């Protein structure tokens, strides 16, 4: 069974989505997935106005960068893969209109993340630096390994493409959070270059052996597919702040 299918069978109508960051790398994949999705439909592409002109010469239906309340209110949820400032703009709008929100954008400051926690009292929010199901399982695996290798030293290495803006990656920060329940002060090494989609490795370093658990992305498809399925699931549950594990209903590792 595909993820989200069970929950969707309880909904009579398609899940309608706005997409902030429509013209970006993630946006391009998400709109392709939504174009052929059985239960979810893109109703409001949100992009910068300059990008509209580049992507669609002539009359353009893509909305400009300001949060257009009318546009967002036509959807059940806003999916956001953009920039933190843009995220906050749409989050405020979604909270005011009581529309759900998937925040995939990384690099939010503490104050922005804490606003999301407050907004989650009014609406359902999925906030995840990595919407891939594979990476969600990888995180669970690392949390489990951290307990097994509690006496070892931990470290994280992440590698991303040269255009990534935030350092360290949101996934690396989330991984640190997973393993820090066992050990504090875990350092993250970041590398930027080429077209690397996104690789993360967690090192468990003992006196005479090293265990490395690694995840490599070969394309962005798994981020985008997971995000769309998570948006569908989010529309079937109540208010609150969720992570991927929560939305997918995965119990914690043994
Ligand atoms: N959660 C996840 O699984 C993943 C998260 N990301 C994160 O998603 C974000 C976007 O990543 P990419 O698509 O690679 O970046 P990108 O730079 O290709 O796309 C971002 C897009 O947002 C647009 N944008 C900026 N301000 C806007 C506004 N006010 N209104 C509408 N659009 C606006 C930009 O013009 C750009 O087209 C980054 O923070 C990245 O770290 C990326 C991959 C996976
Ligand atoms: O910007 C990216 O590309 C990615 N960002 C996310 C992050 O910061 O962890 C997820 C993925 O690694 C790709």
From TrEMBL:
One Pfam family, short name: DapB_N
Domain Dihydrodipicolinate reductase N-terminal intervals: 18-130
Pathways per UniProt: Amino-acid biosynthesis; L-lysine biosynthesis via DAP pathway; (S)-tetrahydrodipicolinate from L-aspartate: step 4/4
Catalytic activity reported: (S)-2,3,4,5-tetrahydrodipicolinate + NADP(+) + H2O = (2S,4S)-4-hydroxy-2,3,4,5-tetrahydrodipicolinate + NADPH + H(+); (S)-2,3,4,5-tetrahydrodipicolinate + NAD(+) + H2O = (2S,4S)-4-hydroxy-2,3,4,5-tetrahydrodipicolinate + NADH + H(+)
Annotated GO CC locations: cytosol
Gene Ontology terms for molecular function: 4-hydroxy-tetrahydrodipicolinate reductase
UniProt entry keywords in alphabetical sequence: Amino-acid biosynthesis, Diaminopimelate biosynthesis, Lysine biosynthesis, NAD, NADP, Oxidoreductase
Domain Dihydrodipicolinate reductase C-terminal residues, every copy: 134-248
GO biological process: diaminopimelate biosynthetic process; lysine biosynthetic process via diaminopimelate
SUPFAM superfamilies with a match to the protein in the record: Glyceraldehyde-3-phosphate dehydrogenase-like, C-terminal domain, NAD(P)-binding Rossmann-fold domains
Enzyme Commission code: 1.17.1.8
Protein family according to the UniProt entry: Belongs to the DapB family.
Identification of the protein by name: 4-hydroxy-tetrahydrodipicolinate reductase
